[in-house]
Amino acid sequence: MSTTVTADIEVDVPIRVAYDQWTQFESFPNFMSGVESVRQIDDSTTHWVASVGGATREFDADISDQVPDDHVAWHSTTAEVHHRGRVQFRELAADRTRVDVTLEWEPEGFVEEAGAALGFDDRQVEHDLRKFKEFIESREVPTGAWRGEVHGGTAAGGADPLGSDGVVGQDPDLRP
Questions:
Q1: What tens digit of pLDDT does each residue of 149-165 get?
Q2: For residues 107 and 98, is the Cβ–Cβ distance under 8 A?
């Protein structure tokens, strides 16, 4: 049985700053509890080491769709960990951005299933978003940026991200 968490937060930085920081996956341990490390393998692949319920897990994830200042979508590629998600960015004002997160995964074992049932996962994601807000607002500039695009898991550049149906990107979860 999969677990889905949705959460959002408003950050007092321009959309470009919020998005650019989110593309710096190796900085995630600074604001994500349980994430020990993230290593960027190439433009669309990351390797994660995370501690969940006292157990350390390693997995790879592919970025399936990414459009600057709009969204990043990913899914795990390792059989032992089933995880996918999407982060969307919405400009509210020149210096204010809404960050929407949707995560889906398969809890393993009693501890993870109980945590999901009791809402611990939801609270953890909300806590991590608050830490992201503190991190980026205190810096005011991202630690780096990657402004390329990924469509269908392949890095691309310069293509018009707006599809014929008016949706930015090619992630099937974004389609009506």
A1: 998 888 876 444 444 44
A2: no
